[in-house]
Amino acid sequence: MPETNAVDIAKHRRVETQRDRRCAKLSPPERQRPPGPAVRRPTASTIYADGRIMAKVTGIGGVFFKSRNDNKALAAWYQKHLGIPLQAWGGAALRWPDDKADDKGVTAWHVAGKDSQWFSPSDSAFMINYRVDDLGELIAQLRADGIEIVSGPESHENGKFAWVMDPDGNKVELWQPMAWDEKNKSA
To answer: Where is pLDDT greater, at 100 or 122?
Structure first.
């Protein structure tokens, strides 16, 4: 990445939008920014040497994968066993405001090494981690439905985890988020 300096950063410290200019005319406490897209506040890692602001990924917009067999049956399995709220178009919209975890909704992204066994026993090149509200209860429901828990539950600094296989042979990670804390390892 090209070098930046303090002048570049200062020059781009604030990116104004029409909404920001409208808010500036308001008197406190109305001066709070209305809901909507966040204003990009550049950092040294997002400014090119020529002053341009780098466009970047801001989150995961969706997860899409191909079924090896019957896509409707696979979607129904996710609805029945994991509570994915299917809509008429065949997919689901999972909204962050519905998530009440301590972390307020975070999505992890990671590229595993080619020799990783993390997704085993699946031979898929991906694994989806689903946030859950009560891992213990979900595990009990899955076992009652005859779904094998491949591994877990395990406790880590950032929550509790368990793994199952879907009918297409994809390993699915279930995660009950918790605030990052060493004491959660024993919870």
So the answer is: 122
How many domains are there within the chain? 2
pTM above 0.85, yes or no: no
Is residue 52 included in any domain, yes or no? no
Encoded amino acid at 97, one letter: P
Q: How many CA atoms lie within 13 A of 183 on its CB side?
A: 1
- C-alpha distances in angstroms, 8 versus 17, 44, 49, 55, 150? 19, 8, 8, 16, 51
Among candidate residues 97, 154, 163, the one with its CA nearest the CA of residue 130: 163
Other beta carbons less than 10 A from residue 71's beta carbon: 13
- DSSP alpha helix (H) spans, 25-106: 71-82
Q: With respect to residue 135, please indicate whether it lies within any of the assigned structural domains.
A: yes
pLDDT, residue 39, reads 55
Q: Are the CB atoms for 150 and 171 separated by under 8 Å?
A: yes
